[in-house]
């Protein structure tokens, strides 16, 4: 099966891009908007609508394989590629990339994905968003060519074992939406509520607002959740504890231990308590915090996000054992072949992982992530796109259930 033609279209992502440097520098809030000048290269506003490119591969038999190019909310931060502006990349897609795609045999995914992921133009690799969407389309094409699911393609080509049940999902909720929290408790999300804290002042004096927030989540689960419902509580802090406590890691570890107590009887996961200035500094800082928590007997899991942007980064974090989980932030890794290998590497080396991504993706990229999860077995998935939780839970759950039903049906037949 070959690619007969290629069609591109520019569309909307599931969320927006935000200049985190400008946010932390004190940009003035005006509803969703933030007033002031952006500080990160590529941004024209501190908050701006996210955009994507749909890549449509027209195959010999008339079927169409689709992937979507998207970047993360906080593009240009902590070693990530710059903000993705689709119009800037269309000339390259219509020339070099089109020539590479046209006529290509898609009966094998892995080799094609590795080749496009490594492509260089003028000595530079393609933007991670382009590699992300192009490899999604190639995986979809291979699945169409073989009349199988994308999960089956991955399992066959990477030698992994398909899951027999859906992977648990981290339901990503708005921090101030109590009704949304109730809905994800009702739907028995495996992990909740994500609830971003992006400014140190949001934590309250000495972190008391965050402490009470953790208590309130625990109370609410116990009040309205089913008796046998035991989710993990997850909070994403975007480095704000580092902003609050500075270099005093002992005090920060004490605080995290108390935060773990506030979340009981549920286990607590903390993502990005600190954002350091380099990958090695991030590893060192998280390693010290992890050791400090263990010495205090605290059952608080640390998740790395910033500075863990590539397959190589994932391997380095896993080797260092500096944290309990890494977030495999799918658009940051470029080609989805890298996300596949990252999960498999974590599983083989005792590192927990969330097959994550960003609210700034699409329904299509979310469904493809669900297929990857079934074939690779991460500890949990991040709900996406958007931060509506309901939609993300629905999209990911139903994609996994449909896929598993098809696989079982074919096996029985």
Describe this structure in a few short sentences.
The chain has 14 helices and 15 strands. With 413 residues, the protein is of the alpha/beta class.
Notes on the protein architecture:
This protein has 413 residues and is an alpha/beta fold. The chain folds into two domains: 3-158, 2-Layer Sandwich (Enolase-like, domain 1); 169-412, TIM Barrel. The protein contains 14 helices and 15 strands. The protein has helices at 20-24, 86-101, 110-118, 128-146, 150-158, 178-186, 208-224, 240-245, 249-263, 279-295, 311-320, 336-348, 363-376, 390-412, and strands at 3-18, 28-30, 33-35, 47-59, 64-69, 120-121, 124-125, 169-170, 191-194, 232-236, 268-271, 300-304, 325-328, 352-355, 380-382. The protein has an eight-stranded parallel beta sheet with strand order 8-15-14-13-12-11-10-9. Strand 6 (120-121) and strand 7 form a beta hairpin. Helix 5 (150-158) crosses helix 13 (363-376), helix 11 packs parallel to helix 12 and helix 12 (336-348) runs parallel beside helix 13. The two termini are 25 Å apart.
């Amino acid at each position: 099966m070959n690619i007969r033609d290629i069609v591109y279209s520019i569309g909307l992502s599931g969320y927006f891009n935000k200049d985190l440097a400008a946010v932390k520098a004190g940009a003035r809030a005006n509803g969703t908007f933030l007033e002031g000048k952006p500080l990160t290269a590529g941004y024209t506003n501190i908050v701006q609508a996210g955009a994507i490119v749909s890549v449509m591969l027209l195959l010999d038999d008339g079927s169409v394989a689709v992937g979507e190019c998207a970047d993360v909310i906080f593009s240009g931060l902590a070693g990530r590629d710059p903000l993705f502006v689709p119009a800037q990349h269309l000339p390259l897609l219509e020339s070099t990339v089109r020539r590479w795609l046209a006529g290509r045999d898609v009966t094998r995914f892995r080799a094609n994905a590795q080749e496009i992921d490594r492509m260089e133009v003028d000595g530079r690799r393609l933007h991670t968003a382009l590699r992300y969407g192009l490899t999604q389309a190639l995986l979809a094409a291979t699945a169409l060519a073989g009349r199988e699911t994308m999960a089956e393609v991955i399992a066959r080509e990477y030698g992994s074992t398909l899951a027999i049940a859906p992977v648990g999902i981290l339901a990503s909720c708005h921090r101030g939406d109590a009704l949304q929290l109730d809905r994800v408790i009702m739907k028995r999300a495996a992990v909740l509520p994500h609830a971003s804290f992006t400014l140190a002042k949001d934590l309250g004096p000495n972190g008391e607002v965050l402490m009470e927030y953790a208590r309130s989540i625990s109370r609410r689960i116990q009040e309205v959740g089913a008796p046998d419902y035991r989710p993990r509580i997850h909070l994403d802090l975007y480095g704000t504890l580092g902003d609050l406590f500075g270099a005093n890691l002992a005090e920060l570890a004490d605080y995290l231990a108390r935060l773990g107590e506030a979340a009981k009887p549920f286990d607590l996961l903390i993502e990005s308590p600190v954002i350091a200035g380099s990958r090695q500094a991030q590893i060192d800082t998280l390693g010290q915090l992890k050791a400090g928590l263990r010495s205090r007997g605290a059952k608080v899991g640390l998740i790395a996000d910033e500075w863990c942007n590539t397959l190589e980064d994932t391997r380095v974090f896993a080797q260092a054992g500096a944290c309990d989980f890494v977030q495999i932030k799918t658009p940051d890794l470029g080609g989805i072949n890298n996300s596949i290998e990252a999960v498999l590497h974590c599983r083989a080396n005792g590192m927990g992982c969330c097959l994550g991504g960003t609210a700034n993706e699409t329904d299509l990229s979310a469904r493809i992530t669900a297929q990857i999860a079934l074939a690779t077995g991460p500890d949990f998935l991040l709900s996406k796109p958007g931060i509506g939780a309901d939609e993300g839970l629905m999209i990911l759950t139903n994609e996994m259930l449909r896929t598993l039903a098809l696989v079982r049906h074919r096996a029985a037949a």
